[in-house]
Structures are given as C-alpha cells and as structure tokens.
Amino acid sequence: YSKQWEGCMEIAVQTARTAGQVIREAFKHEKEVSTKSSPVDLVTETDRLVEDLIISSLREKYPSHRFIGEESSAAGEKCLLTDSPTWIIDPIDGTCNFIHSFPMVAVSIGFAVNKELEFGVIYHCLDKNLYTARKGHGAFCNGIQLQVSKETDMSKALILTEIGAKRDPATLKIFSGNMERLLKAQVHGIRVIGSATLALCQVASGAADAYYQFGLHCWDIAAAAVIIREAGGNVIDTSGGPLDLMSRRIVAAGTVEMAHYIAQEIQTITYERDDHN
Ligand code: IPD
Known about the structure:
This protein is 37% helix and 23% strand. It has 277 residues and is of the alpha+beta class. The protein has two domains: 3-145, Fructose-1,6-Bisphosphatase, Chain A, domain 1 (2-Layer Sandwich), CATH 3.30.540.10; 154-265, D-Maltodextrin-Binding Protein, domain 2 (3-Layer(aba) Sandwich). The chain has a seven-stranded mixed sheet with strand order 3-4-5-6-7-8-9, sandwiched between helices. Strands 11-10-12-14-13 form a five-stranded mixed sheet, with helices on both faces. Helix 1 (3-27) runs antiparallel to helix 2 (45-61) and helix 6 runs parallel beside helix 7 (218-230). The mean pLDDT is 96. The protein binds D-MYO-inositol-1-phosphate. D-MYO-inositol-1-phosphate binds at residues 70, 90, 92-95, 162-164, 194-196, 215-217, 220.
C-alpha cells in the first residue's frame, strides 16, 4: 500500500528540483515584494509563480488529491487537513532571505494521508542539498542517511529558532524572555537562519541539537517533521504533548530529554491556528 506513496515521493523530488531551478534563477534578479498578514510577512511574485507551478503539475498527475499551499492559503483557500491524500507545500521557505539574497532558501513538499505525514522533501535551492524522508525508511540528504544528535545536556546544546511575524511589544517580550531562559541555561549558542524548514533539516542532520518556534505554519512543519522523525529525532508541541500540524508551534530535538526541557522552559506566543475558519 505504501509503495503507492513511493511513486508520489519520486514526483515530489522532481518537482522540488524544478521549482528550485526557477528560484535559483530568480534569486539573481530584482524582486517585487508585497506584504501579507503583517509588514514583515513577505511575499514575492516568485513565491506565487512557484506555488502555481508545483500545484498545477502535481494536480495534473493526482487530480483526486488535495493541496495546502502557503500562497493559496494567503489568497483565501481553506487550510484543512482531511483524510484524503494531501500535499502540503511551501514554494519558498525563507522568503525574507530570498528578497535579501541571503542564501538560505528552500522548497518544502510534505504529504499526508489519513492525517498522517507519509513523506517529506526539502530542497535547499542554492546549495542544492536535497533532504528526503519517507515514513519507516530513514532520512537522507543527497542520498546520505541522516542521524540526529544524541545530546541531552542543555549546556552543550546549539539551538535554532525563528522569529515569526508578530512584532508587538508583548510578543517581543516573551520571545526575548524565551531566549534569555535558554541562554541562562548556558546553551552554547542560539541561531536564527531565516528558514524554518532548513533549520529543522539542521536538527535532522545533527548539526543543531534542537529547534523551537511559535508562529510557523503547517507548510513549514510537514516535510521537516518526517525528516526529523526518520533521522531518529523528536517533534513535539510546545506544551510537551504530541505535535499538532495546524497549531503554529513546534519543538524539535535529537533527544526526548532536550525536546521536553525546551517545551518546559519556553512561554507561549499565541498565533491563530492554520485551520481556523
Ligand atoms: C517563514 C520562515 C521564517 C519563519 C516563519 C515562516 P516563509 O516561512 O521560515 O523563518 O520565522 O515562521 O513562516 O514565509 O519564508 O515561507
């Protein structure tokens, strides 16, 4: 049965590479920027073009499947996960990086059936690193198997996070308070690279020990969650409970201990759910 999804994953890889090529070309040129939910929630014509390209080519092959995409959702399409096979797509993760020509930009394609994530493909458009994982079959970067870090000690940890689109004083206070708490635990460092999916791939690779964020979306999480799990890692909700794809928040870590330590330390920044009506 799951053989069926293997074919879909091969198509996802081809599609991500094609999209990556378009993004790589556009990266060199001037970008036309507009804003979405806030002055720092950015979109370019390339985000929309690449999402159309991905969805139309997948829809042609899989007309009965459903699609959740960052830009289709921004345009008002419902972001609902049903039991149907569903592709969850971020055409450009790291749009702000893309706009500034900061070379951390990825295409992310996740796939869920019966609300379970089956596979994930993340393509770093500039480095051409391809991260892939299918449930039960391991995680890979360019075909080399990935393994998360085994670190449990916070005072030896390299942590990644991202900022999110809310910049009101109350949010910023919680955001910096969370960082402060981890810095007080004497973590080695905290990094913000501007792409949630590529940050999560660093956790899958063992280059970072953990990642947490409030305000990301299901299309930032879907593919990466499979990749981290298949690399032996943990992906949980910031409450410490199971991951909720639509909840706009995540803690990911190589070890259970580190995931739960971070979940306990950080305070919640509330964002509207992706599947709000
Ligand atoms: C965003 C980036 C950013 C993170 C946001 C994401 P986008 O994705 O990953 O680093 O802080 O929460 O939504 O808008 O570039 O696809």
